TrEMBL record:
Species of provenance: Penicillium vulpinum
Taxon lineage: Eukaryota, Fungi, Dikarya, Ascomycota, Pezizomycotina
Record flagged with keyword ATP-binding: yes
Taxonomic superkingdom: Eukaryota
Record-level Gene Ontology MF annotations: ATP binding
InterPro entries, sorted: Kinase-like_dom_sf (IPR011009), Protein_kinase_ATP_BS (IPR017441)
Entry protein name: Protein kinase domain-containing protein
Length: 104
């Protein structure tokens, strides 16, 4: 017969990375809201970037640095200049317009 595990009440809804409601709220502030990736939810949708993706045949995306109201920011390796760069990828939509990675 299969064993069932009962989680303590305060951990049942929060997955593996947080153990209580305070940590859940901290995590929600750090992680961008999923609706920002859903074009049916917002006209200023985040462009979905894959780790390892090559942008503009030049910038190899390594990891995410952060996000703001109108962009996501990624650590990338510039294959042309052979250096690390931060890429800001603007939202699609009214402010972003086109997806133009900005190396800085
Ligand atoms: N050059 C950088 N190096 C490392 N991290 C960066 C860099 N630029 C931005 N970030 C990270 O990305 C996050 C978002 O950047 P930024 O605030 O510039 O975006 P934004 O879309 O203009 O924000 P908002 O519209 O909310 O002002 C920053 O909080 C920071 O964590």
């Amino acid at each position: 017969m299969a064993e069932t595990t009962t989680l303590p009440d305060n951990t049942s809804d929060f997955g593996d990375y947080v153990s209580n409601e305070d940590e859940q709220l901290d995590l929600e502030e750090l992680v961008e809201p999923w609706h920002k990736y859903d074009i049916t939810e917002t006209s200023n949708v985040f462009y979905p970037i894959d780790l390892g993706e090559l942008l503009n045949e030049r910038y190899l995306v390594e990891h995410k640095l952060g996000f703001g109201g109108g962009s996501t920011v990624w650590m990338a390796h510039d294959l042309h200049d052979k250096r690390g760069v931060a890429l800001k990828v603007m939202c699609l939509g009214d402010w972003g317009g086109k997806r133009i990675p900005h190396a800085g």
